[in-house]
Design brief:
Helix content is 30%, strand content 16%. It has 16 helices and 17 strands. An eight-stranded mixed β-sheet has the order 6-7-5-4-3-8-9-10, with helices on both faces. The protein has a seven-stranded mixed β-sheet with strand order 2-15-14-1-13-11-12, with helices on both faces.
Length: 557
Amino acid sequence: MGSTSWKLEDHPKLEKGKTIAVVVLDGWGEANPDQYNCIHVADTPTMDSLKKGNPDTWRLVRAHGKAVGLPTEDDMGNSEVGHNALGAGRIYAQGAKLVDLALASGKIYEGEGFKYIKQSFDTGTLHLIGLLSDGGVHSRLDQIQLLLKGAAERGAKRIRLHILTDGRDVLDGSSLQFVETVEKDLAELREKGVDAQIASGGGRMYVTMDRYENDWSVVKRGWDAQVLGEAPHKFRSALEAVKKLRAEPKVNDQYLPPFVIVGENGKSVGPIVDGDAVVTFNFRADRMVMMAKALEYEDFDKFDRVRFPKIRYAGMLQYDGELKLPSHYLVSPPEIERTSGEYLVHNGIRTFACSETVKFGHVTFFWNGNRSGYFNPKMEEYVEIPSDSGITFNVQPKMKALEIGEKARDAILSRKFDQVRVNLPNSDMVGHTGDIEATVVACKAADEAVKMILDAIEQVGGIYVVTADHGNAEDMVKRNKSGQPLLDKNGNIQILTSHTLQPVPIAIGGPGLAPGVRFRKDVPDGGLANVAATVMNLHGFVAPSDYETTLIEVVDN
């Protein structure tokens, strides 16, 4: 690529030197106002006032599907691809799409990662661990099916599937149909002489898929079932396991207890042993990193692994570029270079970024193109506020919004920084719990934090950019094709815990916003990737020519 010229052109009409607050509300989309729109129900005077402004300073942008590099317009956005787009200013093929391309072309089987695990096929077992659903957020059923078939065709003689049930990105109870589908595929493989079966399982929020080192016991439950072949529940088939366990009180797909499938001898049909190959097939990183550490690190003290088998382990993708974890992976990540953060630091923009643990990585690592650490420690400061642990987020829905607001306010008032960037996680993390009342409280807390930040911007004569990464809290109910809430068989509404396909707001303002700055009318399909050029303009620079176009123009009054 040659050396990058980091010097940005000066904007012909916008001056430098304004303090800019970039606020990302996580899971804050725009939808019709009704009782299931927690943002509408909540008391959010600050965000309301931005919206009531005018179309010159408030608009919607796309935050799902192709706008953020996902394969189809049915793919809801998520925080990782959202922050990649916000920070990179360009649209990169992401997660699912990268895997789709690699599977369709067969490139996945020619890569270093597959060649590495293939060395175990002759004498060992291939274990596939991940989320069994078609949700498309962490994994996708059709990819798992293709990988099973492709591995068998390329010499895998013994395959064990370790499933995690979903119920968060898809309907609760849908686990049964996913198990039935994959059991058919496994039966077909057995007919062809491949010893293929499900070996263990559990619900995604209770087994394996914790994130941000919140609760290692979740990973340990997975390790015990998948690696050691030990779990409190033993069944002869996965279908029986899911049916019986779901019948227990307070059990749903997300929180299914761990189980193992046993043979006639009562022993697990698929523990992981020396010489085996393991693939974690989720393409989304955040809920695979902890398991990856347990599978990969010789030196590990988070829980007692009992034994640490000598295996060949690969992720579907590399889950952490800075930790190089895992060191082997089937599909290479998007190379996101020349992000807006790196350009701005090279052009003298002193940057402060802050969130609490659950979204700290989004406002730093993902914002900066899947890269950990500072571009220039003299120019940047990143602050992580510890998230509550050991409770679900609806118990304390205010989370750390006010603390994040205070840190941002202090950074702005210190006048030590040109950009102060935060993520307020409330509407997303509490929205995921499906607790409508708590989500209303969460939205109010986020709004209060926005007010603190805007008040500080007012005091220093700065500019604010308030936006979001994807929807969630604006629609908490599942709907039929005509938009009416869906009811379950008892007549209760079906709660929607997932992200949405809704657009998200972006608002600009503050005393430092030059007169004549307004949103353009000729970028109707603008998305999150257009925000980077917009922010660069407000700092007084023109964005690089290959960035998605800016959302603003300056008209002479």
